[in-house]
Amino acid sequence: MTEPMKPSYWYCDACTRCLLHGEYRFNCTVCDNYDYCEQCFTTVDPPHPHRMVPELAYGREETKECAGVDMATAIRAAIAMYSDRHCMGTRDVDKENPSHYMDSYSWLTFKIIGDRSKNFGHGLRRLIEPRGIPDNGTSIHFMGDIEQAGSIKQYDYVTIKPDDCLTIINTSGSTGFPKGAMISESAFRATFPRWCLPSSLERITLSYRPLAWAADRDAVITTFLSGGRTGFSTEDPSRLMEELALVRPTYFGGPPSIWNKIYTEFKTSLALLT
Prior knowledge:
Blueprint: E1 7-11, E2 18-20, E3 24-28, E4 35-36, H1 38-43, E5 52-56, H2 71-81, E6 86-93, E7 101-109, H3 110-127, H4 143-152, E8 165-170, E9 180-184, H5 185-189, E10 204-207, H6 214-225, E11 229-232, H7 240-247, H8 256-273
Parallel strand pairs: 6-11, 10-11
Antiparallel strand pairs: 1-2, 3-4, 3-5, 6-7, 8-9
């Protein structure tokens, strides 16, 4: 007996049909919460006046019980709970002209991100000797090769204690040479008190700052644990306004220089319209 498709949180504003979980919805980039199903997107005449982009419709997820309260358990629970949702995306590149970026993003699901992360970790473990330095100097390995190696031989998860160092977060260097701060598992986990809770609200983040810093690291992980998705910038400051329009984040933080840039762009656009 096949499992019936469950409804999503969205419906088509043209035919009023409830969209199914996993179905694509075509979302208006101007109108608030306005979507078409694929059929209406291609057949409605006259077509909707604004640009519509394909987004994934999803319904309520089943809550996953966490066996522990550590960060590793939370990440694995998020991957399992939101497996078929979009998780992370990068801007598309023109295949015929790699120096040119397209006006679209491609997204990977939580399952794909989870599988690739695990394979990459297993592959790294095969290459790295703990506290050892190769005698023959530095070796260069491609990420795809490491993932492939990790998919062949896998290891047990490593459990760390609450006071063990989980990560290193660097200062920005604005007041001196950047410093790496060692953050324990319990201290880092305290930054994310809520995770894996079903919600109809989709959190979308645009990551444009180095992930070695706390700001975007925390934003990406918070988005991940809530089942949201993160679009990564091309790291070209001149394209920031384009990418904000493409990703359309529901959360966006920045220093004063970024907000001044956005305000300047707004005034320029407003002057052109008037």
